[in-house]
């Protein structure tokens, strides 16, 4: 598996590489280019070495100094796209938790594949479990309290998704034993899983503790059709759109799915977890 950051990194690298080639073609040194742009000479070196991501004004100044002003907008678009591929949670959630639940990509997707290594998947969450998770996120990230709006939006999104889309979900067995809410709410969530297993448009698999793993455990991710993967890290939401990387995640999902338990076997693992909660 490649790093989920690599799609964004490759885009930034492509911009930096093009700026370097442009400077070389114009027979300019970093110091000379900085002088033409009115910068301190260290700024050129920071951009060349990708220590600093150039702003639109920086790219325009660079291209003009190299005699290539017509190339600026394409490079600016590439940089803007790269910025959307790696979005820190502080930025992604600045409009509130509720707004984050209303992403258009859910409405546009017909086939979802979800892998969860810890938090039980959002589109199957009960109201109580969703409220507990969203409260935890709000507190951890010190966000304004719009939890009730976020719960409402998440449940509406889940209902629409499960009504119109094909959904495949893989959960690590360890996640069944990882309460992120009060124990009664966690137990209710597990019981809810028992009611949805067997739905015609839902494939729900649990990867047992001792199953032979074809792929090492990964961070939780969502696949939207075959076009985009969203990976949830502690600090950011990473969008993977590079075709080869998307295919790598889909292949990993397929391989892990072969090690998962479904139907009655999945229900047995859930009942085992419910029994453990009561002990």
UniProtKB/TrEMBL annotation:
GO terms for molecular function: DNA binding. Residues 109-262 form the DUF5753 domain. It comes from the Bacteria. This is DUF5753 domain-containing protein. It comes from Streptomyces hundungensis. The lineage of its organism: Bacteria, Bacillati, Actinomycetota, Actinomycetes, Kitasatosporales.
């Amino acid at each position: 598996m490649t790093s989920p950051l690599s799609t964004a990194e490759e885009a930034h690298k492509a911009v930096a590489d093009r700026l370097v080639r442009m400077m070389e073609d114009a027979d300019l040194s970093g110091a000379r280019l900085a002088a033409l742009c009115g910068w301190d000479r260290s700024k050129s070196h920071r951009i060349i070495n990708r220590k600093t991501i150039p702003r639109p004004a920086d790219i325009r100044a660079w291209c003009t100094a190299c005699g290539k002003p017509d190339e600026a907008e394409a490079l600016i678009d590439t940089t803007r796209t790269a910025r959307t591929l790696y979005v820190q949670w502080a930025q992604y959630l600045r409009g509130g938790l509720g707004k984050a639940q209303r992403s258009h990509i859910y409405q546009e997707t017909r086939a979802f594949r979800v892998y969860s290594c810890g938090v039980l998947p959002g589109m199957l969450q009960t109201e109580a479990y969703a409220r507990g998770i969203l409260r935890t996120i709000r507190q951890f990230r010190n966000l304004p309290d719009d939890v009730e709006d976020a719960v409402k939006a998440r449940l509406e999104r889940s209902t629409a998704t499960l009504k119109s889309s094909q959904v495949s979900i893989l959960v690590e067995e360890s996640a069944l034993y990882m309460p992120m809410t009060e124990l009664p709410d966690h137990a209710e969530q597990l019981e809810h899983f028992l009611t949805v297993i067997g739905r015609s448009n839902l494939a729900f698999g649990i990867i047992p503790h001792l199953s032979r793993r074809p792929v090492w455990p990964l961070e939780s991710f969502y696949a939207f059709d075959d076009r985009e993967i969203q990976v949830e890290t502690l600090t950011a939401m990473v969008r993977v759109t590079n075709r080869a990387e998307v295919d790598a995640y889909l292949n990993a999902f397929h391989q892990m799915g072969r090690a998962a338990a479904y139907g009655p076997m999945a229900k047995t693992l859930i009942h085992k977890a419910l029994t453990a909660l009561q002990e």
